[in-house]
Structures are given as C-alpha cells and as structure tokens.
Amino acid sequence: MSEPVVNVDWDAQAAAFDEQPDHGLRDPEIRRAWADRLRGWLPARAADVLDLGCGTGTLSLLAAEQGHRVTGVDLSPAMIDLARAKLAGRDAAFLIGDAAAPPVGEQRFDVVLVRHVLWTLPDPARVLRHWCDLLRPGGRLVLIEGRWGTAGPVGIPADRLTGLLAPLVPGAGHVRVERLSEDPLLWGGTVADERYAVVAVP
Fold first, then answer.
1. Inter-residue contact 138 to 201 (CB < 8 Å)
2. Which residue blocks in the chain are alpha helix, DSSP H?
C-alpha cells in the first residue's frame, strides 16, 4: 500500500531544526541517551553507515564519534550544508539525494540508519527492498520510527513495519523491536505516542 508523500520545505526548516531536543541533541543527557542507544544498534567494530534522511547530521555525528565511517543523504541542500559543517574533519561524506533512492552503490554498507523517514515515503515495501540491496552480507537496517498524534495520527506502527520486513528477513529472530516511548531522556520529556526502533538483519 502506498502512502502520501509528506511535503515539507526542509530547506526552510533547516536553520531551526536542531532546536528540537531530539534533533540537535544539545542537552548532554539527551545526547548521551541517543549515543547509548546507537551503540547498541550499530556494530561494535568500525563500520560503513549510511544515514538516510540525515538532516543536520546529528546521528551521523554520534556514529562518527563511535568510530564509524558515515555517508549521509538528504534531499535538502541546506540540511546537507549544516551536516557537513557539523562533521567537518571527520570520516564522513554527505550527498544531496532522495532517501528512497540514494545516490550510492549496492552492497556498500554495513548499516542503513534511518530516523523518522520511512513513514513519509510512498511505497515503503519497495523502499525497504532497495535499502536491503545497499547492505553488505550480514548488514543491518536500523529504523527509528513512530506514530504521532491522536486526532489524525501520522507515522507507521511497529507491527506494520515488522510486517513489511517479514518477507525480507529470513527468520523472526533477525528482527528486534526496541520501544523508545518509555525513555523520556531521548525526547526531552515524557511522550504518549508510539516511538520505537527496529534492528533487522536481512
């Protein structure tokens, strides 16, 4: 099933994007909470990480600080400019492009990392198949998603995402869902909606 594309002027949003507690991670406790989660999702050894819809590069920076080589992709040139500045001097490259069809080669990455992007894309099942093709054998998808709002909720529930992954993953043991709603340190306060991460090894 296709979903509508979310039309947001991300160039216009870029300058203020990091002001959200869970975007800029400027608070040391929030930053530490995300760093700890990321450490559990990414390989222990140095890996090639593709951060799709990377925004201003905050998760890219955390991954680079943990010793990983990062490639970030975002549609917004303004976001990419901020990400390049944030990671200047680190082992990271940033490209302007569509997260659904990033301008990179197949089987080049150990991790495809995506936060709050899949739900905005049309045909998420097709997109997930393509992201799997970007992984080296034994690589993993790290998908941070959620469902927000009450009157007209948006997003993708965890059970739907795991259902989309089922045909791509050989065994149920290769998909792990980690609930994030209950950890206020990640968001700068208590949240009532569904927020989670899925780690899948196709």
1. yes
2. 10-17, 21-24, 28-41, 58-65, 77-86, 124-133, 158-165
C-alpha span between 184 and 7 (Å, rounded): 28
Structure tokens at 106: 């197949």
Inter-axis angle of helices 158-165 and 124-133, to 10 degrees?
A: 50
**53 secondary structure, DSSP code:** T
Nearest CA among 117, 120, 133, 7 for reference residue 51: 117
Q: Give residues with Cβ within 8 angstroms of 80, minimum separation 6.
A: 54, 72, 74, 94, 95, 96
Tokens of 39: 């450490």
Of 130, 174, 179, whose CA–CA distance to 157 is shortest? Answer: 179
Cα dihedral sign, 185-68-195-101: positive
**Residue 112, SS3 per DSSP:** strand
Tens digit of each residue's pLDDT, the chain (202 residues) = 344 455 677 677 767 776 776 766 778 898 899 999 999 999 999 999 999 999 999 999 999 999 999 999 999 999 999 999 999 999 999 999 999 999 998 889 999 999 999 999 999 999 999 999 999 999 999 999 999 877 778 999 999 999 999 999 987 679 999 999 999 999 988 998 999 999 999 9
Quote the pTM value: 0.92
Indicate the DSSP class of residue 168: G
